[in-house]
Write a structure and sequence with these properties.
By secondary structure, this protein is an alpha+beta fold. It is built from twelve helices and eleven strands. Strands 1, 2, 3, 4, 5 and 6 form a six-stranded antiparallel β-sheet that branches. It has a three-stranded antiparallel β-sheet with strand order 7-9-10. Strand 1 and strand 2 form a beta hairpin. Helix 3 runs parallel beside helix 8 (276-289) and helix 10 (302-322) runs antiparallel to helix 11. It is globular, with a radius of gyration of 21 Å. It starts with a helix and ends in a 10-residue tail after the last helix.
């Protein structure tokens, strides 16, 4: 519920994007870890107004530059492919001064058109839906094929640089500034014991074994819109972390939540396991979309992407917990520790089932008639 004082402050920002006198309703949307988000309803359309957490996104203009560049590129591709650009990619609303951001009281705000009659699912309800999630992640890569990554800013340095994240983690552990290391020694030991291959994807990019691509970098199911009528994937949303990276990152990050049998902050770790039916469905949707762009070397790293993105997320949650909960929004004192333990439990399941997971990937490749060179691993 938005009180009158909040609405008064919001209107100071809103009037730079839209006419406040024509607003029908304002609703705060919960659920995001980072930004504050409001749904603005007007007679002819709905809009999303967001206050950007500039402590996390320290380069708001660089972030909006990236979003503007890739959404414009995708819009042209969608028109070329005969798809509706108003439903298959986000549309950024500029201020009345032609700017992508409004600055008010040292805060950064942006506005985007809301895609109506669509749902972003926190929980995957069927293998058919998981197929669409895979399709959306793969289609994002397909639509951005040919985009020149050099024009993008690295708005969060080392975002999916797992070795860098690991070094930061060790620094935070050694400092132990909020005296929490004693609460999670088992988790710390697990991460350290499995750190040997943290650099496999970073090295492959740096050595040009795999291409550097545009990546979303946060491909959880709640960032993917599904059409309410057709139940088909529309597009990826929450483009704040769009940067240069590897499609292996997007692949693995989508799986770590989508294929888990438990919520990301489930405390009962006996509930955490892999839904193999969902894993297969995702791979079929993803690999169908990227069949003409993915390289054999990227295919070889798909399992590693699933493993790395899961353990890296656990590492990030644990780092934030040990650092005093400065990054992720929490709702109770031990929230980040619970999240870390959850992701570590999922990592253990991935490691235990490596052979089964890689065989499912190969079966999907075979059914989609990938050439023989994709099976040399």
């Amino acid at each position: 519920m938005i009180d009158s004082a909040q609405l008064f402050e919001l209107n100071k920002v809103l009037k730079e994007f839209l006419n406040p006198e024509r607003v029908v309703d304002v609703e705060e949307l919960k659920g995001g870890h980072i930004n504050r988000t409001y749904l603005i309803t007007m007679p002819e359309a709905k809009y999303i107004l967001q206050k950007i957490n500039h402590h996390v996104f320290t380069s708001p203009y660089g972030m909006m530059h990236n979003i503007s560049e890739i959404t414009e590129y995708i819009r042209y591709k969608l028109i070329f492919e005969g798809l509706d650009p108003d439903r298959h990619i986000l549309y950024t609303v500029k201020t009345i001064y032609g700017q992508l951001l409004c600055i008010r009281d040292d805060s950064y705000w942006r506005c985007m058109k809301y895609i109506d009659n669509a749902t972003a699912y926190n929980t995957i309800e069927s293998k058919e839906l998981m197929y669409e999630i895979g399709s959306a992640v793969g289609n994002f890569q397909f639509l951005l094929e040919g985009f020149h990554t050099r024009i993008l800013d690295d708005t969060i340095k080392h975002f999916h640089d797992t070795p860098y994240r690991y070094n930061t983690f060790n620094d935070v552990v050694n400092l132990d500034k909020v005296h929490r290391v004693k609460n999670c020694q088992e988790e710390i030991n697990f991460i350290r014991e499995n750190s040997e291959n943290f650099g496999v994807v970073v090295r492959a990019i740096d050595d040009k074994i795999i291409p550097r691509r545009v990546t979303h970098n946060d491909t959880k199911s709640s960032n993917i819109l599904i059409d309410n009528d057709t139940h088909k994937a529309l597009c990826l949303i929450d483009l704040d972390t769009v940067m240069r990276g590897s499609l292996v990152y997007d692949y693995g990050d989508a799986l770590r939540i989508g294929c888990s049998t438990a919520e990301e902050d489930e405390k009962d770790l006996t509930k955490v396991s892999i839904n193999f039916e969902y894993f297969e469905a995702f791979n079929r949707g993803f690999l169908k979309e990227v069949i003409n762009i993915i390289t054999p070397e990227e295919v070889k790293l798909l399992y590693d992407g699933f493993f790395l993105m899961t353990i890296e997320c656990g590492l990030r949650f644990l780092t934030d917990y040990l650092d005093g909960d400065r990054y992720f929004r929490i709702y109770y004192r031990e929230h980040n520790l619970v999240r870390a333990r959850n992701q570590i439990a999922m990592t253990k399941e991935i490691m235990k089932n490596k052979e089964k997971l890689t065989q499912i990937i190969k079966d999907c490749l075979r059914d989609l008639e990938y050439s023989d060179r994709y099976f040399e691993w």
